[in-house]
Amino acid sequence: MSSSAADILIKNGRIIDPANNIDQVADFYVQDGKVAGLGTKKPAKFNPEKTIDAGGHIVCPGLVDLCARLREPGAEYKANVKSETHAAARAGITMMCLPPDTDPVIDEPAVVELIQQRAKENHSAEVVTLGALTVQLAGKQLSEIAALKEAGCVGVSNALQPMQDNRILRHAMEYVLTNDMTLHVIALDHGLSAKGVAHLGETSSRLGLQGIPVSAETVAMAQYLALVEEVGVKTHFGRLSSARAVEMIADAKSRGLPVTADVAIHNLHLTDEAIAHFNSQAHVIPPLRSAYDRDALLAGLRTGIIDAICSDHQPHEPDAKLNPFPSTSPGISGIDTLLGLSLQLIDQMNLSLNQILRALSHAPADILGVAGGHLSIGAAANICIFDPQPTWQLTRETMYSAGKNTPFLNSELPGRVMHTLVAGQIVEALF
Amino acid sequence: MNQPIPSSSPSGDLQLDSQGRLQHLLDIEGLNRSMILTILDATHSFISANNQEIKKVPLLAGKTVCNLFYEASTRTRTTFELAAKRLSADVLNINIGTSSTSKGESLLDTVRNLQAMQCDMFVVRHQESGAAHFLAEHVAPHVSVINGGDGCHAHPTQALLDMYTIRKHKPDFQQLKVAVVGDILHSRVARSQLHALRLLNTGEIRVIGPRTLLPTSLSSRGVKVYQDMDSGLRGVDVVIMLRLQEERMAGGLLPSRQEYFQLYGLTQERVKLAKADAIVMHPGPVNRGVEIESEVADGPQSVIMEQVTTGIAVRMAVMSIALANRQNRKLVLPGEVDA
After folding, report:
1. Which residue of A12, A369, B162, B202 lies most exposed, with the fewest beta carbons within 10 A?
2. pTM of the full predicted structure?
């Protein structure tokens, strides 16, 4: 990467900025690490040291990924901040949000500082963190949420761990509200999902796998929503998996509750059929559900009930998937495929490029409450430039994440990322 | 919609070779009717051979069969062992308790080590669904895997010996009403039996049990579901009882063994609801007084001991068929003349 923030001219690209309703072919100007203008609005003193020919390419806000595990600290044998931030930049992602279930858990400022320091050393995609809602994620005692916010956490979450009871959850919500933060939750009732490894349905029944009923999601979601209604804390529901959950979010939004939602990209493509032959690469929690659920998630994205798409990136070492299905670690390595799989939805599902890019940039940035996800003048120049036309094959070699665990291996994906800029610096020049 | 094909998934017909012949036996699902009939016919030949004074045949001479048992088993392991020995194979029995898995060696490591000792066939029993598929994906190309029971998924040799037993007593499956009773949800035996019964065009397949022990999607697969034992048994030709595991009481699925017996125990009274010449089966081990009354288990309609005997021959049949296919040669059964 270059050492200083030079003036950069991005020529002839199709600029798509959903936040500002921009979709036009124009030159684009970056100065001092910021967006400086486009088309005829060229800044006065503009001396581009670098010109990127973006003819035929799309210039859009860098992608913001609401949930990515980087495996550092605690599981560096799977991946680390360096490997994953570089992989992200190569995939057009300029910011990733790390949930708090690292080891040690992000329940005190020192852990946040460690991660921030690692990310900064790598001069690549930015990393923001969610703080642990409770100490050790044990669901009992509140973390020092004000201190975590001060250290830079953009929200709090108890990740996939249960709260001891709803009284503690209610208090936690009140305290999160006091600190003016967003609570990130994954609705999954602990009892109903215990030991489950797949959607409870035809496939799990046939394979003799312990199922996770849709009610594991809806029971938990109903409890959260009842408490959100009383407390009024901003709550983000991550990784929706069922049709019923989409309906519940739609209802909550129509009644004005302060809720948002995302879906993992693999839940928009795959159903529980993907595990039909004990394919552990498709073992994820929350699980892949029925075609009916998948279609409802797609419809929810189209209508805006679901705000954002995330990778739910979970890189693993090969051994994590080399076991009988129930003993394998859940999770898909998803940052390499986030853009390509999202673009694939455009043709398949009658979604617009604008909608997709909004769900990948502006919407998640908004949920995180961070600056970014748009190309307004003066904003940090976090930019993704990609060629929408050519397809490329996902292989172990073309994946940059340290985790090669994906059920999409050997798929042909559209969209080739040409350049990624973070704060006006070209972090990766590819191909 | 155009769903990407999960690429690293094993193919659905992992157990068949490129010419559609059996190379592993992992599951009844994926086999066809004629394959099942071939195995049942071969079983018949081996039963005749087993009645001879000299029981050994040289079909697996020079081969090594490894019995890899991660779960306790008496019947299945010993019948596999006897089957391999009667086929003249060398047999390696490895019983891996939970203690050695906790020492950290993965299933795959264990198998790779054993493969280095040049085993030709693994018989595997494992507590997790999919274990046999997993092994079949990773063994060397010449090695066969026979599923001796994986989690709640499949127990194909048990289902085959049950089909043999049924066929012996009631040859025309299309005329039969068969009831499978008990813990279908957790039973690998039941899953494999239901596939086999369907492939053999069984006239009517019923399952009987409380909702807590039944899978959710059975009726969509052409199975009649009964929660009332008496109505389920009425007029059936075959009653297959399943073993009830003690842990079902702890999991909130059943209140007590007593209440289970009261609702679903097979008593002499209840046997009378089935056809007069109905047979009673059980894969063993039997919980007397829990799922079945002793008088029924040992009674005139019971074929439970016959099932055990058939177990040896059916396993001989499966092992010799799989290895003959591996060697690309025709299987010459006892009593047949090699042309």
Report:
1. A369
2. 0.92
